[in-house]
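TODO from last week: model ABC transporter ATP-binding protein.
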Amino acid sequence: MPIAAERPARESAGPKLPSPVMTAPVPVIAIDGLTKSYGKVRALDGVSLSLEPGRFTALLGPNGAGKSTLFQILTGLFVADSGSVRVLGADLAADPTAALARLGIVFQQPSLDLDLTVEQNLAYHAGLHGIGGRRRRDAIEEALALFGQSETRRQRVRTLSGGNRRKIEMARALMSAPALLLLDEPTQGLDPASRRDLVLHVSRLVRERDLGVLWATHIVSEVEAADRVVVLHRGRVIEDGAPADVVARSGASTLEGAFLALTQGRAA
Ligand code: ADP
Ligand code: MG
């Protein structure tokens, strides 16, 4: 008798264990085979990536790796040449409204209106997402509290420090309760203490709210405590794993060394 025919009888004899497929968490995003070229420049070359809720994933790549291009595609600003993106099962191409509704984004270029107050900036965003009336006040208050920014509510953005401006952008991105927060070099131009502060705030939200985070950067030191590191180089994912595993596989002794070995062909 063929082995395959025996299998059902054997399985039904013992206690039924949950299958690993059934217990795997549903990905917040499933990216499959994305490619994107600008003329002759191939910015993304077959990027596949699946992210889980409640995990802080670093997208580590040198300048020009394709990080911003990936984010522009994920947020529907650009269309990929090929490949697909699903956000909580919703296909970005077929059902962009459903897919984009569950994404929050902080772009590489700061995008607050400097002459408006913090509250005015957030109120405008709330309106775009259909949050109105009393709910809007509450949503603004709650978002600011997440980043310890309640006191800045009536201040013009221009008067805030760079780090606090970034916190306001992150708070704004969370107002629509996204399942996945995309952050494109959110610490650019900030001093090390402000960078660390932002990482700590976001890490806490990942744990407390089961939020998925994809944090793009080329600064290795700020993502050493990430749950997972995905290295993007010349439009390709060339390494993916827990920081300790990435270091061990590279033969280097630090994540910085692993990153240099992977992207510049030298160990440190
Ligand atoms: P990163 O964000 O990792 O620095 P980008 O996605 O900005 O990388 O860029 C990836 C590659 O695509 C680079 O070679 C860059 O010069 C090129 N590129 C990015 N945006 C454009 C664009 N709008 N037009 C032409 N080339 C672009
Ligand atoms: Mg970029």
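Done. The CA atoms of residues 166 and 186 lie 7 Å apart.
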